[in-house]
């Protein structure tokens, strides 16, 4: 652990996977996070059982990966450590029907995101540990990075520690899935939930796609070619972000031309201006006061009408078609990327 930072960060040397030697870990769900955690745990020597419904098409994938698969209820009853990796929107239901009736005193109930605990959709009994190991990464990269001997940073939080060993066990889990290679930051459920929802809405997923689409549309509406607009506003974004990832904003500024640097430094704040910051503060407030989560729960209860419509519109945006055709012609393109194949498998499920 290092104390150079504002918070505690744990690395491989701080954790011991053998802490989980006498435990069976139930991984519920075999989607984006589930398949990565289950396989990484298994390859780290942890005894894993995957819990999926009889009807789930993820079953064949988990079995093909050499894992033992059973129903969620049976997996929980076999396990002392339960990792809840079904979608946030079904967790309360899965908890009520499959987890709670099979939990025993001293078990660990673990999440990769704290939404259902923080917003009181799941209220666990007092005699179990409740922890979180939340990779700061899409699940497919948690797996890919583990296989490449790299890791993904993660957050660790303890909501309830009845055994006194909650942190040690969660750290062992974090190490087993590869997070402690990159750093595990200790936090609270509240901080993880609010920062994670904010990040994905304002910057990582919502903000960045809106910026890309506006940039693409501004060029195409002004008469430039869609192919050039795609390469300029979407494809090159990855290459620019790679430099930011490797060495911060300065590595990117150092690599681009002085012209790009001067243009970016003088125009960037005109595009993402104070008004955007005010919008970000509003979005954060809706997360903090529970408005976003209430809206999302109601949207699900109504059968996801807005979500389906927005998803359809995103799919039909011209940039999707232009990009798909261009990517097919990349010299290294061999049908699909690994993540696209895996996402398609998950999307076909349930
Ligand atoms: N997707 C990510 O990269 C990511 C990153 C960090 C944290 N998280 C968190 O991880 C958790 C899992 O998210 P995900 O995106 O991996 O989920 P996902 O949508 O990829 O999970 C789908 C899996 O859940 C199973 N499933 C769906 N409904 C079910 C039900 N009613 N009963 C039993 N199984 C069911 C499916 O069979 C499938 O295996 C969430 O808490 C999420 O917030 C996800
Ligand atoms: C991968 C993300 C966006 O970081 C995660 O938080 C999620 O909800 O999928
Ligand atoms: Mg999230
Ligand atoms: Mg996240």
From TrEMBL:
Pfam hit, one: KARI_N
Cofactor binding mode and count: Binds 2 magnesium ions per subunit.
An example Gene Ontology CC term for this record: cytosol
UniProt binding sites for substrate: 257
Residue numbers annotated as active site: 113
Annotated residues for binding of NADP(+): 30-33, 53, 56, 58, 139
Reactions catalysed: (2R)-2,3-dihydroxy-3-methylbutanoate + NAD(+) = (2S)-2-acetolactate + NADH + H(+); (2R,3R)-2,3-dihydroxy-3-methylpentanoate + NADP(+) = (S)-2-ethyl-2-hydroxy-3-oxobutanoate + NADPH + H(+); (2R)-2,3-dihydroxy-3-methylbutanoate + NADP(+) = (2S)-2-acetolactate + NADPH + H(+)
GO biological process: isoleucine biosynthetic process; L-valine biosynthetic process
Involved pathway(s): Amino-acid biosynthesis; L-isoleucine biosynthesis; L-isoleucine from 2-oxobutanoate: step 2/4; Amino-acid biosynthesis; L-valine biosynthesis; L-valine from pyruvate: step 2/4
Cofactor: Mg(2+)
Keywords associated with the record: Amino-acid biosynthesis, Branched-chain amino acid biosynthesis, Isomerase, Magnesium, Metal-binding, NADP, Oxidoreductase
A molecular function GO annotation: isomerase activity
Domain KARI N-terminal Rossmann: 7-187
Superkingdom of the organism of origin: Archaea
Claim: Magnesium is one of the keywords in the record: yes
Annotated ranges, domain KARI C-terminal knotted: 188-333
Functional summary from the UniProt entry: Involved in the biosynthesis of branched-chain amino acids (BCAA). Catalyzes an alkyl-migration followed by a ketol-acid reduction of (S)-2-acetolactate (S2AL) to yield (R)-2,3-dihydroxy-isovalerate. In the isomerase reaction, S2AL is rearranged via a Mg-dependent methyl migration to produce 3-hydroxy-3-methyl-2-ketobutyrate (HMKB). In the reductase reaction, this 2-ketoacid undergoes a metal-dependent reduction by NADPH to yield (R)-2,3-dihydroxy-isovalerate.
Alphabetized NCBIfam families for the sequence: ilvC, PRK05479.1, PRK13403.1
Similarity comment: Belongs to the ketol-acid reductoisomerase family.
Protein name in the entry: Ketol-acid reductoisomerase (NADP(+))
């Amino acid at each position: 652990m290092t104390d150079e930072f504002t918070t505690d960060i744990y690395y491989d040397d701080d954790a011991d996977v053998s802490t989980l030697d006498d435990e069976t870990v139930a991984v519920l769900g075999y989607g984006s996070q589930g398949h990565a955690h289950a396989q990484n745990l298994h390859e780290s020597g942890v005894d894993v059982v995957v819990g999926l419904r009889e009807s789930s098409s993820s079953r064949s994938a988990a079995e093909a990966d050499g894992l033992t698969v059973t129903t969620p209820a049976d997996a929980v009853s076999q396990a002392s450590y339960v990792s809840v990796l079904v979608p946030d929107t079904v967790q309360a239901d899965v908890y009520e029907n499959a987890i709670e009736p099979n939990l025993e005193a001293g078990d660990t109930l673990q999440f990769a995101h704290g939404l259902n605990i923080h917003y009181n959709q799941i209220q666990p009994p007092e005699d179990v540990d409740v922890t979180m190991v939340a990779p700061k990464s899409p699940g497919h990269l948690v797996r890919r990075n583990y296989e490449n001997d790299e890791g993904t940073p993660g957050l660790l939080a303890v909501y309830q520690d009845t055994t006194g060993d909650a942190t040690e066990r969660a750290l062992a889990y974090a190490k087993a899935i590869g997070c402690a290679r990159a750093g595990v930051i200790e936090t609270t459920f509240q901080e993880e939930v609010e920062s994670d929802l904010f990040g994905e809405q304002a910057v990582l997923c919502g903000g960045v796609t809106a910026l890309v689409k506006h940039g693409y549309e501004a060029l195409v509406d002004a008469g430039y070619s869609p192919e050039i607009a795609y390469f300029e506003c979407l494809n090159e974004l990855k290459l620019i972000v790679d430099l930011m990832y490797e060495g911060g904003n300065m590595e990117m500024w150092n690599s681009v031309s002085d012209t790009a640097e001067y243009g970016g430094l003088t125009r960037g704040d005109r595009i993402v201006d104070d008004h955007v910051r005010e919008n970000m503060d509003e979005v954060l407030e809706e997360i903090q006061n529970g408005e976003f989560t209430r809206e999302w729960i109601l949207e699900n209860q109504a059968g996801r009408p807005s979500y389906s419509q927005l998803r359809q519109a995103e799919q039909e945006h011209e940039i999707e078609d232009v990009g798909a055709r261009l990517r097919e012609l990349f010299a290294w393109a061999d049908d699909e990327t690994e993540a696209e194949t895996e996402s398609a498998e998950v999307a076909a499920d349930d």
